[in-house]
Amino acid sequence: MKIIIIGSGKVGYTLAENLVKEKFDVIVIDKNHYALERIENNLDVMCIKGNGVSTGILLEAGVDTADLLIAVTESDEINMVCCLTAKKLGVLKTIARIRDPEYAAELSILKEQLGLNLVINPEQAAAEEIANSISFSSAINIESFAKGMVKMIDLKATADMNIVGKTIQKIDRETNSSVLIGVIVRAGKVIVPKGDFIIENNDDMYIIGKHSCIYNFCKHYNREPQKIKKVMIVGGGRISYYLSKALNEMGVKVKIIEKNRERCEELSELLPEILVINEDGTDEEILLSENIGDMDGFIAVTGMDEENLMSSLIAKRSGVKKVITKISRTNYINIVKEIGLDSIISPKLIITNHILRYVKGKKLDAFLRLIDGQAEILEFVIKDDNRILNKPIKDLNIPKNVIIATIVRKNEVVVPHGRDMFKKGDRIVVISMGKNISSLDELCITTPGGAHNEFFNGIKKLGSLINM
Question: For residue 63, which of 43, 77, 40, 46 has the smallest C-alpha distance?
Answer without folding.
Answer: 46
